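Justification of computing resources. Each target in the renewal requires a structure prediction run like the one illustrated here; the chain below, 479 residues long, is used simply to show the kind of job we budget for.
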Amino acid sequence: MSGTLRKRDDQSMTPLAQFLELNRNIIQFFYGMVFFSLGLTTVLQSRSYSRLELARSLKWLAAFGLVHGLYEWGELLIPLQSPNLSVESIFFWTGVQLLVLATSFTALFQFGISLLPKDRNQGWFYAIPAVILTIWIIVVFGFLLLTLPDRETWRNTGNALARYFISLPAGLLSGFALRYYARKKIAELNAPHITRSLHMVSYVLFVYALLSGLVPPPAPFFPANWFNTQAFVHMIQIPVRIFRSIVGLMLAVSVIRGLEVFDLEYARRLEDMEQKQILAIERERLARELHDGALQSVYTAGLLVESAARLATPGSPVADRLNSAISALDGAVQDMRRNLSEMTVALENQPLTKTLEQFIQEMQIVGGVQIRLISELPEDCTLSAARLAHILAIVRDALVNVFRHAHASQVDISLAPTDHLIFISIRDNGRGMLADAKPGYGLRNMSDRARLLGGKLNISNQPGKGVTLHLYFPWEEES
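Resulting structure tokens:
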């Protein structure tokens, strides 16, 4: 009887449906490849040093893609290997595959929750996906396994429950949360194309939630016994996995385009760092000019007025006016000194190694490049605030050049003492300086600061292997 019904169904299928059914294994492999590629691409494109919350949440989207791809490949491999497996082995791997399915949906659920505002994302709320997964495991592998009449019915029922209670809310919540995040956080970057890409990801997640969460395999309860994968094929003549594959491909493409936000964030942070660097240099220049020029002139004028006041008759109108001028000039000197202290870098005398360690941690977050500090200096090697400012500026300029031009993955900063000098090297593993490259403002600024330290700065270029900066300066500050 079943063979007769299947034959009638085959005869009623359209040519397209028959073609898709004949190539079911190829389609299933492509289906799994789409989601596995989504997960792999998300892992490769993520940025561990990003300050965006999306960077921390992407691990859950990557887990969803990788694990769900494994589930879909299991749908292909288990039937192919069934002639070589015992009944118990098939049942065991079917149970594992069912657990993998629910786990993948849980990862998608966690992705959506991780993007919600932090004031709501607290404790119990963050644990909702794990709680739902635990309840599903207890129901499916405990109650249903003991009560349902056969293992095929048990498998379909567990699959349907995972789709209704995990996949459907996971897809809807992820779509809503990602759209909310793009509108509140990504829109501030003023990059409409990235915002549109993330909105597209949210729309695709909505569609995936409906196709995955509302179209389960046939199961003995409503609505799975009324609308399921078989009913979908009878209505549209195309298996639902085709539409899920298309949605998965759209999801992967949209995610790849949306992840350009990390490149934009990186460029903006470098630009902000360079602007702060230029402002700091300009403030130091103005401070030097103010100290060496205007302040000295005002101070000299004060001395001349004081000498004139001593020549004037005490109590006379001229003496009173000269004393008022002296008070005004003293006030001007105090104001200029206060402005000078505000314009200079507020550093105290402190150990060089410790200061560089803290500075490198901040720079590593900004640049996303691994920076390693190797110091042979004594822990009590303390420098003045002015010298520390020059050294930090040189290191900052060097690292900005690496972030901007070198395409490096690692930078090594070494500190070593000699008899009378401190030696600092900054070496990257990037592509090196181009043959026609000309020294820019940054290199000139580093050389000027090296001279202010009483030392020198040399550059060693190895095309294809990186650039090394050698800075050496005396232990003691020159008087």
